[in-house]
Amino acid sequence: MTDLIDKKSTEQAGKTTPTGHVSIMVRGANAAGRARRDVFTKYLLGAVMIIAAIPLVLIVAEVVREGAGAISLEFFTEREPPPAREGGGYAAGFVGTGIMMLMAIGMAVPIGLAAAVYLVDYGKGFFATIIRFFTDVMTGIPSVFVGLAVYAILILGSGQVIGFGGFTGAVAIAIVMLPIIVRSSEEVLKTVSQELRRGAFALGARKWQTTTKVVLPAAAPGLTTSVMLGIARGTGETAPLILTAFGNVNIVWAFFNVAIGAVPLQIYSGAGQPFDPGIERAWGGALSLLVIVMVLTVIARYIGARATKAHRI
Predict the structure, then answer these.
(1) Residue pLDDT, tens place only, 37-80
(2) Could you tell me the CA-to-CA distances from 177 to 62, 155, 232, 266, 269 in Å, in that order?
(3) C-alpha to C-alpha distance for 82 and 67, rounded to whole angstroms
(4) What is the DSSP string of 98-143?
(5) What residue ranges are annotated as transmembrane (predicted)?
(6) Cβ contacts of residue 233 below 8 Å, gap of 6+?
(7) In DSSP terms, which residues pair with 16 in a beta bridge?
(8) What is the mean pLDDT of the chain?
(9) CA dist., res. 171 & res. 240, Å (int)
């Protein structure tokens, strides 16, 4: 009874409607307060974003400042000299990294995208839960464990028929890339509206046709970004390559059973040396990797924008 009296009193005061909603007059009276809170939230989030970007800006600025002096044509075309000697470059590392990344992309991207499509459009129940569980576990595993596992299974497990080289390094990088591609692609595919799928079904398309001709094109920009995240992670990996690629200062074009160079390995080796030329080359290698990742990201954004435009048409 008391509540009923209070409700009627409030309605009479014009604060709420008979249906319990806040009166438009009260909303109007609070408009200035809401505007002030919106402005405060806007500037607060902007300040947090700036604080979060400071470490990245400092890292990029330091890498550019230290590494710019080492970058030249010679740096990309010549092999690394002894640590104390001036000149030379990371040609062996660039060739090795390129070979291993191409092989790793060929392994991880098709499997990762297929797994994401399965989880979103086909996977139900226990098996899908198991895939998500192991993918999440793989995301958190230190990459050195991946290298150790590949070393134990492929190199020791085969009786060293498979040795150190580009193939084992690519397998390790692909395993590092795989959970990132699967989980991020899954989230992207979930953003494609169910109405789009139902519309394709209503037009008579089968499920696989809906997936390949409707869902994947609609999600292409996000999927491209997911793949690029995986590639960026794999390009900079060092720990698994120590146990699989093993490193080489000579340019190696072989895919199997010959230790191969990689830019992260040369950076790791050069940064630990007491000689200034070796440290300077390590900074140059870090700057090169940074530029490569940024260029790949820009290309991915461009492809994604083109795919979005084409899909809209």
Answers:
(1) 889 999 999 999 999 999 989 999 999 999 988 888 899 999 88
(2) 27, 21, 9, 21, 23
(3) 19
(4) HHHHHHHHHHHHHHHHHHHHIIIII--SHHHHHHHHHHHHHHHS-H
(5) 43-64, 90-121, 133-155, 161-182, 241-263, 283-303
(6) 176, 177, 180
(7) 22
(8) 85
(9) 10
Q: For the CA atoms of the chain, what is the radius of gyration?
A: 27
> Helices in the chain by DSSP H: which ranges?
2-12, 24-29, 31-67, 73-77, 91-117, 126-140, 143-150, 166-190, 194-202, 207-210, 216-235, 239-242, 263-271, 276-312
Listed in sequence order, the residues at least 6 apart from 101 whose beta carbon sits closer than 8 Å to its beta carbon are 170, 173, 231, 234, 235
pLDDT band at 205 (very low <50, low <70, confident <90, very high): confident
Distance CA 236, CA 232 (A): 7
Q: Is 22 helix (H, G, I), strand (E, B) or coil?
A: strand
The pair of structure tokens assigned to 155 is 């190199």
Say how far apart CA 7 and CA 23 lie, in whole Å.
13
- The C-alpha angle with vertex 73 and arms to 273 and 91, in degrees rounded to 5, equals 55
DSSP state for residue 16 in the 8-state scheme = B
